[in-house]
Amino acid sequence: MNSSDDLLIKHCCDIAWEAQTLALPNPSVGAVITRENGEILSRGVHSLAGTPHAEVMAIKQAYFTLTQDSTISHLESSLELHNFLLHNHNGIFKNCVLYVSLEPCNHYGKTPPCANLIKELGFAKVIIGTRDSHTLASGGIQTLQEAGIHTSLSQIQDEAQKLLLPFEILREKGRFVLFKIAMRLDGSYVNGQISCEKSRIFTHNQRSVCDYLCISGATLRSDNPTLNARYALPPYDKHKQPKLCLFSTRENNPRFHIFRKAEEIESLKGFVVIEGGLNLLSALRKYIDMLLIHKAFFCVDLNFTQKSNAMDFELLHTMNLGKDLALWLH
C-alpha cells in the first residue's frame, strides 16, 4: 500500500459521493481501474439499486478502452455484463489494478457477485476502501485472496466508511431521514430561485428514489411547490414519484399526509427527504440523520442574520454541483 493507492481510493469515494443516497437501499460505491503504472482506464459508480455495481461499471468501460469492442456498450443489465465479460475477457485485466470504496459483494442478490467476476477476470491487484459489515454481502476480500489476487485495505478507511452512513442508518433503523436546504452565500433561503440547474437535477434525482418527501405548511403557503421529479435525468427519470407529507398544525390538503407533531415522522419507513428552511430544521433536528446544504454563491440580503451552522452537525463531505457547493453533514 502506498500514497497513490490512498489517493485513488479517495477518488473512488469522491465520485461515489456524486451519487450519494441515489442507490438506496444500497450503499453508494465508487470504483477506478488503472494499469499497473497508475494510468486510469475507467471509473464506475453504483447509481441506482438493481443496476450494475460500481466495479462492473468500471470494468465495462475498461474493457471497451482496452479492446474497442463496442458490443459491451449495448449491455445494461448486470447479468448480461457478467456473462459477456466472463466469456470474452481473454486475460486483458491481468496487468490491471481495481480500486473500490467498498469490499466487493460476495453473494447473489439483484445482481451476481462482483467478487466472483473480479476473481475470474484475474486482476493483478485489488485495493479496497473498507470492509462490508453486511454479513450477507461480505466475504469478497477472502474470495479474492484465496484466488491468489493481491488484495488489501486502504489506509483511509474512515473516508470510505463515511460514504456508508445513509445505508447503515437505513439498515439499522428502517428509516433514513435527509434534510435538504438551499441557501445563498449570505445565508438567506427565501424569495425566489436559489439553486443552479445541476443542483435542481440532483434534487429531482433524489426525489425520484426517495419514499417520502416532506415540507412545512409555511413552504406550501409561500411557494406552493409541485414537488415532482420533472428534472430527473436517466436512470432516474422513469422512477417513482415520492409520497408527500406536510408538517403543519393547521393545513389540510388532500395532496399530503398531514403531520401535526414532529415525532410523527417516526411512523415513516424507508428513505425520507425533508425540504425546508431553518425553522423546520430546528423543529425536526432530533429526527434528522443527515443534512444536505446546497450553497449558491450569490447574495440578496447582506443583513440576513439566521445562521445554518448553529446546530450540532459534523461536515462529512463537500462537492461541486455546477455553480453551487453541496455540503453533506451528519
Q: What does it look like?
A:
This is Riboflavin biosynthesis protein. GO terms for molecular function: diaminohydroxyphosphoribosylaminopyrimidine deaminase activity. Residues 3-144 form the CMP/dCMP-type deaminase domain. It holds the Pfam family dCMP_cyt_deam_1. It comes from Helicobacter cinaedi. The chain contains 10 helices and 13 strands. Helix 4 runs parallel beside helix 5. It has helices spanning 3-17, 54-67, 78-88, 114-121, 140-146, 157-163, 165-173, 197-209, 217-223, 278-284; strands at residues 30-35, 40-45, 96-102, 125-130, 150-153, 175-184, 212-216, 243-247, 257-259, 270-275, 290-296, 315-321, 324-329. Helix content is 30%, strand content 24%. The chain has an 8-stranded mixed β-sheet with strand order 9-8-7-10-6-11-13-12, sandwiched between helices. The protein has a 5-stranded mixed β-sheet with strand order 2-1-3-4-5, with helices on both faces. Residues 302-306 have low confidence and may be disordered. The chain has 2 domains: 3-171, Cytidine Deaminase, domain 2 (3-Layer(aba) Sandwich), CATH 3.40.140; 174-329, Dihydrofolate Reductase, subunit A (3-Layer(aba) Sandwich). By secondary structure, it is an alpha/beta fold. It is elongated. The chain starts with a helix and ends with a strand.
